[in-house]
Amino acid sequence: MATAKSHIPQKRGDVVFSGLVKASGIAILVTLGAVATFLIVESLPALDPAAQIGSAPDGFWSYVAPLVFGTLLAAILALAFATPLAIGIGLFISHYAPRRIASTLGYVIDLLAAIPSVVYGLWGIQVLAPAVQPVYQWLNENLGWLPLFVGPVSGTGRTILTVSFVLAIMILPIMSALAREIFLQTPKLNEEAALALGATRWEMIRLSVLPFARSGLLSSAMLGLGRALGETMAVAMVLSPAAVITFALITPTNPSTIASTIALDFPEAAGLDVNALIAAGLVLFIITMAVNVTARGIITRSARKGAF
Amino acid sequence: MQRPTVRLNRWFLPLLAAASFGISSIVVTIPMASAPGDFNFVGAAALGVVIYAILSFLITLIAQGPRVAQDRMMTTLVLVAFGIAVIPLVSLISTVVTLGLARFDGEFFGSSMRNVVGEGGGALHAIIGTLEITALAALISIPVGLLTAIYLVEYGRGRLARSVTALVDVMTGIPSIVAGLFAFSVFALFLGPGIRMGFAGAVALSVLMTPVVVRSSEEMLRIVPMELREASYALGVPKWLTVLKVVLPTAVAGLVTGIMISIARVIGETAPLLIVAGFTQSMNYNPFSERMMTLPVFVYYSYASQGADTQSYIDRAWAGALTLIVIVMVLNLGARIISRIARPHTSR
Amino acid sequence: MAKRIELKNVNVFYGDFRAVDDVTLDIEPRTVTAFIGPSGCGKSTLLRTLNRMHEVIPGAFVEGKVMMDGRNLYGADVDPVEVRRQVGMVFQRPNPFPTMSIRDNVLAGYKLNNSRVSKGDADSVVEKSLKHANLWKEVKDRLDKPGGGLSGGQQQRLCIARAIAVEPEVLLMDEPTSALDPISTLAIEDLVSELKKDYTIVIVTHNMQQAGRISDKTAFFNIAGTGEPGKLIEFDETATIFSNPNEKMTEDYISGRFG
Question: Is residue C259 part of a domain?
Fold first, then answer.
């Protein structure tokens, strides 16, 4: 049995070529391993409790805690703004807009996903921040009793709320592109069955499109979250940062994010400060990886469910 | 079964919308009598939408029953969501274009920032830097990514292939700043801390670009029909020649499209370059030594460290942003055109 | 050219699954042999073992011997790529290379293998093969056009021209007409009768009339049920199989009582 199976003589070209492509695959493994290793090695000096870090006199963990908080706060707020809008856009393109317009819109959205983040940052600070500042004023005057909107109101509009608006706008294209694709994958038969039973368009969507799309939407939200967590330049440009943990969204003292802190401080850093920043980067890497792995888990689990 | 009692005229909704916006404009204008100011367009539009949503819901509810009313409400909501999302994106594009055009001139594309403190100056050094660094990144990522995709589609079986697939996914999620830190750590280890050079930036970008190339190429290779491979094998063609001469040519349009989109993805990256390529005001043609300016970093620095003549720095930032967007759009459109031209060939 | 093929105790597997069980039969040179039987009986699988195409599928392998003029195709020193150069194959769905012209499709066996062919030789191979495949008259003025632009029947004849251009010893055809209209089918059947003069031809078909019209010998395969291996039930002169089969099962199938 084994004789016929294994002994297939191969030509040299085949051996060389298959070796080459396999080596490339292994190169990917090695690269990722190197990323992890180098980050860990360069982080270790900062993780030493006895380390005297200039930018973190109380030790690394009290240095990174407000950054983790700020990163999560900005990203989660952004996700909260972007998700309903992305679902709305996805539905609009897949089920409401005329087909002609729909395909053009889909293409425009793909283009917007490619706009560099530094452009979003420039727009956020020059256009959006001044535009929303009066709204913050109004929110503080009328809803100031909520801890979210306590004063003093930022005079520039460069707050964590503005940052999360910019992040929401940045992740909208990719999330709505995914949502549109998921909605378009709904089996046409289910939709037609619902319509044939006399359902209105919304009932059809509620009964046959949304249940089908739930896990896909969840994973697209996770991917959007992953992007928002790692986004650097827009935050670095828009936010006026401080090392605080607070839920006040419209004041001049805002928690910063890991990525933007690295971008702002790294060019000037020296000595152990560099290690502290790299360690913070490692923390960010672990957070985004956890989010992405969760997203993948959702996709594979629902794919498996779909198969049976 | 509930039957609609009244059919609404097809002009009803447009008229209702017009009426709603009319009412809201009047409401917004009233306070202006006491405190004159500019007409508040945003307020009027928002109020108009709310009035329209409530009126259309109520009228439909009375005329056609709750199910139709709910349907109409959701249609309004979907349209509103779309509108809310479109406004910032339109604002972004129009701002970049209008403000960017101020300095979108010959001097901008013909000179660097060396010895420039006020007006004038340009981004030539940054454009050269971006092109060189992106080209180097592509030089690393395209072969590795394409060969890995070939491995996964044509050869990969078992545990190695599964772990490569999984790790490509992980790699797709690496934040760009972390890629920058990685490149810094590698180069700092060998060349000492404080190292800045264009090539390190290219390494960082290739960490971001390779997984994108793998994913898109993999997808394109998988849609090449098995029948074509079999036809080639049946002619006594070995596997490697089948891959090189049948599979790759059949998928070439899709592969090029994917690669162009992956280039567009990394050409606007700022954060890793800020860390490892640094910034400078002068030309530097050599990516293997000294700091190298890039277009995204140029945009950031023009804004972040404004000199005495603020306006000319901001103008240069917007012109740089416009240039970036034009480059990205050209790459995307080019990819689109290639895939459209080549389509009749690949599908039967 | 044409060669004799002898199958000795051939078992074909997909991983753990035995698809074909213990087949022994002899195929004479310069004849047309038809494999018939219900879907899933292993006839296409068996056909693909004759040019070692079966093992392209991961996990698939073959036990037993396939002798071609006395040489075992599954011997330890035999290169499957070499086998496929001697045994041409035509598939169920026409599959010309979409990136190549008609001319390059005919020459694919040479071009893909990096063999150097002079322009004159190439021209004569193209003309000869296309004439042999009864396609020359229809395409001689558009040899540089893509092969995908032809009709289904023309594409299939192009695939036959491509297979015979490398002058194989044996030609395998896996339901070559099942995707074609009746007129193209007839053209292909005429072609098979022509090609018989030079080649040993094995054809898998679902169409029993077709087997009756074009084959000299017919092998009937059947399965006991899903998940069971396919077995050779009867192998004989086509006339005998269709008029006076030995096995009850063959008779039932031929007369349309099942399958």
Answer: no
Nearest chain A alpha carbon to C77: A9
Contact C78 A9 (CB under 8 A): yes
Report the distance separating Cα B296 and Cα A238, nearest Å.
16
Residue C92 lies in a domain: yes
When divided into structural domains, chain C yields a total of: 1
For CATH 1.10.3720.10, the residue range(s) in chain B are: 109-346
CA distances, C71 to each of A2, A8, C65, C76, C247 (Å):
20, 16, 9, 11, 32
- pLDDT reading at A2 higher than 70: no
Q: Mean per-residue pLDDT for B65-75?
A: 84
Over residues A11-42, the pLDDT tens digits come to 788 889 999 999 999 999 999 898 889 889 88
Which chains lie within 8 Å of chain B at 3 or more CB pairs, if any?
A, C
| Residue of chain A minimizing CA distance to C61 | A5
DSSP secondary structure of B226-273: HHHHHHHHHTT--HHHHIIIIIHHHHHHHHHHHHHHHHHHHHT--HHH
**What number is the ipTM of this complex?**
0.90
Residue in A with minimal Cα distance to B148: A25
- Among the partner residues A1, A4, A10, nearest to C74 by beta-carbon distance: A4
B99, containing H or E segment: helix B66-100
Q: Which residues of B touch A38 (CB under 8 A)?
A: 182, 185-186, 189
- C14 assigned to some structural domain: yes
Given this model, what pLDDT does residue A8 score?
42
Give the pLDDT confidence of B135-146 residue by residue, as tens digits.
999 999 999 999
B234 vs C113: CB contact, 8 Å cut-off?
Answer: no
B232 touches chain C (CB under 8 A): yes
A13 touches chain C (CB under 8 A): no
Question: What is the extent of the structural domain holding C200?
Answer: 5-254
Residues 189-208 (A) with a CB less than 8 A from some CB of B: 198, 200-203, 205
Q: What is the CATH number of the domain that holds C75?
A: 3.40.50.300
The answer to whether C95 contacts B234, with C-beta atoms less than 8 Å apart, is: no
Q: What is the dihedral of CA C140, C141, C143, C144, to 10 degrees?
A: 170
What pLDDT does residue B348 have?
A: 38
The residue among C259 and B186 whose pLDDT is bigger is B186
Record: contact C148-B237, CB cut-off 8 A: no
B109-346 is classed CATH 1.10.3720.10: yes
pLDDT tens by residue, A238-295: 888 877 788 878 888 888 899 999 998 888 888 888 889 999 999 999 999 888 888 8
Q: How far apart are CA C2 and CA A254, in angstroms?
A: 84
Which superfamily does CATH assign the domain made up of A48-307 to? MetI-like (1.10.3720.10)
Give domain limits for chain A: 48-307
- What's the per-residue H, E or C state across C110-158? HHCCCCCCCHHHHHHHHHHHHHHCCCHHHHCCCCCCEHHHCCHHHHHHH
